[in-house]
Amino acid sequence: MSGSRPGRLGMLLGLTVSAAAATWWLGATQLALRQSMSTAALAAGLLSGLWLARAMLLAPFALRAGAIGGWRHGASSSLAIVVSGWPVVVAGASAAARPVLGIVLVEVALLVAAVALPAVGQGLRALLRSPATAVLAGTVLGGALAAALWMWGTVWTGING
Q: pTM, whole model, 2 decimals?
């Protein structure tokens, strides 16, 4: 029973982020259509925001999950964060004017991060030899990684509009 809890938490976090993004997108699309505006830019914004939010959520969560329960435990819960956003990504991709290859590459990068970051968390636990210290180190490292992703996302959005 306790083995399924991290997967459930990851799924819950992923669904919450996806539901918030989908709600924003549907509301913004309705307003754009009422004003006779194009919705392709909104769909591109949805994809960018959803990718950034899932990546920022994944960084501390996957490191902590790997430090607490090991690689398998962390990878299963981290993959749930990534996979739960796919229905919204598919809907947004169908409305956006972005190349499919770019969308697939970003999703593959999220999958790789969801598998690799729990291994780093497990390595922290083995290196530091204390679960409490490893969880703290994973949280700090994940927070720093999430902040770096936020800064990179802000710069990337500013450059590519």
A: 0.86
